[in-house]
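Problem: given the chain below (671 residues), write out its structure.
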Amino acid sequence: MSLFYRFQAILYKVLLCLFVAGVVVYLLPRAGSFQYEIQAGKPWQYETLLAPYDFPIQKTQVELEEERTRLKSNIPRYFSVDQEVVPSVLDAFDQYAAALPASEASNAFFINWRTTIEAMYDIGVVSFSETLFEEEVALVNSTRKKTIKLGDLYADIDAKNILENQLAEAGIGILSDASIQYLLSLITPNVSYDEALTTQFRTEAEAGVVPIRGLVTKGTRIIAKGEVVEGDKLKILQSLQLEYESQTWTQSNTAWIILGYALLVIIPVLLLFVFLWRTRPLVFENNKRTTFLCVNVLLMVLLTKVVVDINPLYAYAVPICMLPLLLRTFFDTRIALFSLMIALFLIAFLVPNSFEFMFLQMMAGILASLTVNDLYRRAKLFISVGLIVGLYVVSYIAFTLIHDGNLNQLSYDVLLLFVVNGLALLFVQPLIYIFEKVFGLVSDASLLELSDTNSKLLRELADKAPGTFQHSLQVANIAEAAANAIGANTLLTRVGALYHDIGKMKNPVFFSENQASYSPHDDLSFEISAKIIIEHVLNGITLARKAKLPDRVVDFIRTHHGTTTVFYFYQQAKQNNDEVDIEEFQYPGPKPFSKETAIVMISDGVEAASKSLKEPTAEKIIAFVDKIVQRLMDEKQFLEANITLREIETIKKVLVEKLISSYHLRVAYPE
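Solution.
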């Protein structure tokens, strides 16, 4: 069990690496990878290609759809004759006629009318709405079928008009109006559209479409080097690719193909972890940040897979540059670019024209990484997106000129997709907020909010410990200047300096900057006084956690004293007892582990101690700053921070300039 806890961080990263590789392999196409890249309308860049085996020439989807549509249009609509209508109509007619008073004239009329009805039904009576279109239809009567024009049938309205005309010729008084209306209502269509039968015949016609239109025999020359990939050559190449992929991905070699994919995928994923381990160990050791990187890479691969499955051309609308924009917000440019490169290696398995696609995305990603230093500034984001879209358009035009020698084949659909891509990139801001909450990261936008001195925690510090608040402001100002001088994160440094002493709010009167004339330490032992002073670090961490400050800000609270000693009380205690335990006067640490935390440690020490300077001069200030920094270096407080001696000298120079300006002094130049 102890062995598990010892290696659990490494085990987690191994599982994370395998998980990422497994998901990507699952998303890859379920077919063997064709060894040639087919670029329609462009010269064949490979050697002359001969057919490796017999294979059919497949019809394209457009050709198949056209053939299906043509065959369907050749199948007429089917109309069926209802055999039960005529007997039903005649029986009702006979029954009603028999019930009426009989006369020679009426009997002759009814016989004539019945004969007309039978004649019309022999031809067929159809609903008037069906006769609005002139077309040939198939009329099915029992087992017989014949093709007729729809206009040759009687419409039900026309049939009633014929009967009314016969009635008018025979004399108005033969039937009452009620009888006429009843008898005419008996005339109903016996021919109707049979949708089921029509669909059946049209489906059978569609099923008869043959998906192939020829055969290429083994050894036949398909295309020579330099020939343009178009027309029949393009169709034959696409057919060869389909045949190759269908033969490659079989039950017998599926496992080997998956193994090949897994090896190709796990190499770039593993390289990402190795890159972090060798160049960014702090990110590598932080499981949350490592997971964040992997999740972003996976999401980009998944989004590309979904879009390409809809339409391969839509790959140009996938906002790949959102990856470096996001990562550059939380990490540095090298991590953003390396992660983009790894993601593109994986995406290359999914997209057509992978070289052009990777070139476009890599160039745009580099531009994105270099233009988003201040992403929280909306103008910077719009400028960056505009430049990215412009680069897409220029690169696409360049490729079109190279392949075609003109712009006649320039696709405006692709240009529109680039615009859609740019609009999608604008949604990076809400994504940054979501990732901050999910992974506990902090962006420049959040740091800018935290730097507001009217925030709740800083206002509380100003009310409870006004001296500490002023001290924090001074430290923030000089630390920000020092960070700017050595190229560190100035905004993070300023925010860390503003919050580094919030723990003093619990016992403000025990700190000299909040005292008037009386010091409560006069009534306490040196050990207890030191304990109270040291506890402001732990109290600050507690307050920061309660206020939900980001971990990167809490790091400044934890490290701004490192493992130094409360020197004044230690010296006082040592005068009374030479065997005093130094650990009782030491801060718990940890030591600063970044340039920014090291800058705040130096700035805090110099600013606090500068209040004790009497009759300061430029020479005294220079010597004073040297002494403070040297003592920190002697105590090895900067061993874990990635800061150089040259950068420390630059920081010292900035601090000297700031202190001299605060005391309104000028350096004494030699005569």
